[in-house]
Amino acid sequence: MSAVIGRRADNDRGRHLLGIGGMDRSDLEEILDLTDTFAEVGRRPIPKVPALRGRTVATVFFEGSTRTRMSFEVAARRLSADTVAFNARTSSLSKGESIRDTVEVIAAYGADLLVVRHAMAGTAHRVAGWTDLSVVNAGDGCHEHPTQALLDCYTLRERRGSLDGMRIAIIGDVRHSRVARSNVLAFTALGAEVVLVAPATLLPPAIEGWPVTVVHELDPILGDLDAVYLLRIQGERITEGLIPSLREYASDFCLTAGRVARMRSDALVLHPGPTNRGVEISAEAATDRRSVILDQVVNGVSVRMAVLFLLLGSGRQLGAVDAGDSVEGDR
Amino acid sequence: MSLVLRGGRIIDSGGERILDVEIDEDGLIAAVGTGLNGDVNLDASGCVVSPGFVDLHAHLREPGLEEAETIQTGARGGSLGGYTALVAMPNTDPTTDCVAVVEQVRSLGRRSTCEIIPTAAMTLRRDGVDMAPMGELVDAGVGIFTDDGTGLQDPRLMRRIMEYSTGLGRRLGRPVVLAQHCEVAALSAGGYMHEGEWSSRLGIPGQPAEAEELMVMRDIALVRMTGAHLHFQHLSTASSVAMVRGAKAAGLPVTAEATTHHFILTDAACASYDPVFKVHPPLRTDVDVLAIREGLADGTIDAIATDHAPHAPHTKEMPFDQAPAGMLGLETAFSLALGDSGLDLPEVLALLSWRPAAIAGVADRHGVPVVPGAPANLCVVDPDETWTVSGAAMASLSSNTPYEGRTLRGRVRHTIRAGEPVVVDGEARR
To answer: Counting runs of H as helices and runs of E as strands, what totals does chain B give?
Structure first.
């Protein structure tokens, strides 16, 4: 991981996890290996260790989230860290306070690490440049959601031992998905082959350089996949004119009982949650034995424990912070 | 009191020669020759004496946004950049869409160190719906109309404004210029940078090049229909340049400008997520940068403009999407044009001075050849001096330069505005 420390001078002061972009295979594997340790903690009768006692983790969410915030809070508490929560909806941000001022105030309360989510790409990068504290990107607009990708990789590795040679389809609204961007980087860095499956309007406008193949139909490839990763479809994509209707989307791309039955018996079904039943996944598929959706939730806590421990407990920087290293791979 | 610029190499639209320039107390060039001696002598040896620069595109923010810039500070920055005339954009608050605001801008301009040339909006409040009182504004001396900041979306209204403008030329004494910010809003809406490889990677919603190109295409068609003089502001894409080249070859009355940043920076700069690189039209690709340079070299693009757009620091301390678009330009344009356009010095001076002066309708007093009797709007530039860009050190009230820390070659040494030395040895005098 040392190779990626301090690639940008303005972020030397902190230790951050801003994206999968800039991390290589060994960076990712170090986190996943450490996650095993914390997964074991989670299985204990009293799932708590004193590793981060006296440290404070602030969750700074400028955009709504239940799962990711809870997962970080549970992870912090299992490490004996204190947690404070900033919620944009109930804060002085609604009185016109700037994000920079907000961040400085939270830092002044004595937080050691900020878990930042914002609806706009690059916000965690900006925050990292404004503070001496560690910053973990918990989702920035359509850019990255690195801990989601780490927990997804951990879940796949847990079931398969390795992602090497796996063929994984990421299905749905790739264009607006930070989860997809982080997972394209993480899956391919760990040796998997990625196929993006979506109508052309739900793909990013220019992905020629991405290390992926693209198809617009799911059915022809369904039997050849080791895993399907379903993305959430938002209703506003229809008013934006990107797809004609949820019904048409579901007819082409929803993982129905019929479709999941055509998948290989050892294939895996993942979804970052929350699911839209009947749109991208049916109730039957979500509870099929191939589904590891609940494993993802459990593993999310373990992965976040590993990330918090690495940043606050061991003095390392996870990944480079220059988003320009994203996606492109070795091109 | 007379002023002499000594020993400089004069470059103007008439050519080059090394001669002294004497300026009299009426602000006119009294003599051009050798061995001249004035009450004040400014050293120009090793330097180039040029007609002062004319910026076709400056946001001076006054009235209304004085926190970011005033006409006085904008003009001071202009003087430091070698400019003697600035065309002020009308997206002020209130909008410059009536004679009263035009007169306010002009009056503030008279106390500044540049000639401030007010433009007016084509539509009231720049709303794209109701035509501004163009006749009254022409009678008040306005020669350029623009809704800059947005393109005029409605093709029917654009047609009417073009037609109407052709009837006002006699009152103005020259053709009225309509300056268009080409951007089809329906296609660019929700985008904050150029749509392409980088926006896809960064997760920042993009604006496709076609949003600009469709309006360039439309306006060329409407110029063919109406005969109005259309000036294309800040061209940023390769296809836009090609279309304007074609329109000129067909003899249509169109002109065009390009900004320094559009022939230097690309969308890759946005990878830092620093909104100092957020600008409209957005920074494009390498291919577009090269096409702009070709357009400058072959005359398709008539002028280098700055689109000087000051923004108070706190407004740029935002996520990329939320921050306002725009960057400073007046104090860096000459050095960047000399160092990064691929053009030689006389071409750079033409694009900064006499060609924009003609479009702005001020060719009687700016960009004029350096000969006895001409108004003394001049700058003296040292093509070899190097300096390091610092936003904080600029005259602007804002500091949003995308070139912070860059070392540039070529610097303005003296600027003479109507005979007054407003910049001497790189320092503003007032």
So the answer is: 14, 21
Cα distance between residue B55 and residue B353, in whole Å:
8
> What superfamily in CATH does domain B3-48+374-389+401-428 come from?
Urease, subunit C, domain 1 (2.30.40.10)
CB A98 within 8 A of CB B314: yes
Of A99, A126, A204, the CB nearest to B273: A126
Residues 174-233 of A with CB under 8 A from B: 178, 181, 204-210
* B267 flagged as catalytic: no
Q: Which residue ranges make up each domain of chain B? A: 3-48+374-389+401-428, 52-360
| Angstrom distance (rounded) from CA A216 to CA A203 | 10
Do the Cβ atoms of A142 and B268 come within 8 Å? no
How high is the ipTM of this complex?
0.85
User: What would the pLDDT profile of A8-36 be if each residue is shown by its tens digit?
Assistant: 333 333 489 999 998 999 999 999 999 99
Greatest alpha-carbon span in chain A: 56
CATH 3.20.20.140 fits B52-360, yes or no: yes
The structure tokens listed for A294 are: 């609940």
Q: At what angle do helices A146-160 and A25-42 cross, to 10 degrees?
A: 80
* Residues in chain A closer than 8 A to B273 (CB atoms): 121-123, 125-126, 323
- pLDDT value for B51: 98
Judge whether residue B276 has pLDDT over 80.
yes
Query: What is the nearest CA distance from A54 to chain B, expressed in angstroms?
Result: 31
Which residue in B97, B148, B307, B382 is the catalytic one? B307
Q: Cβ atoms within 10 A of the Cβ of A161, count?
A: 8
pTM: 0.91
DSSP assignment string, A166-193: -EEEEES--TT-HHHHHHHHHHHHTT-E
| Span of A11-15, A268-272, B339-343 with lowest mean pLDDT | A11-15
Q: What is the pLDDT of residues A218-234, one digit of tens each?
A: 999 999 999 999 999 98
Which is more confident, A22 or A268? Answer: A268
Look at phi and psi of residue B213 and say left if phi exceeds 0, alpha if psi is from -120 to 50, else beta.
Answer: alpha
Cβ distance B317 to A98 less than 8 Å, yes or no, reads yes
Q: For A255, which DSSP code?
A: B
Average pLDDT over residues B323-333: 97
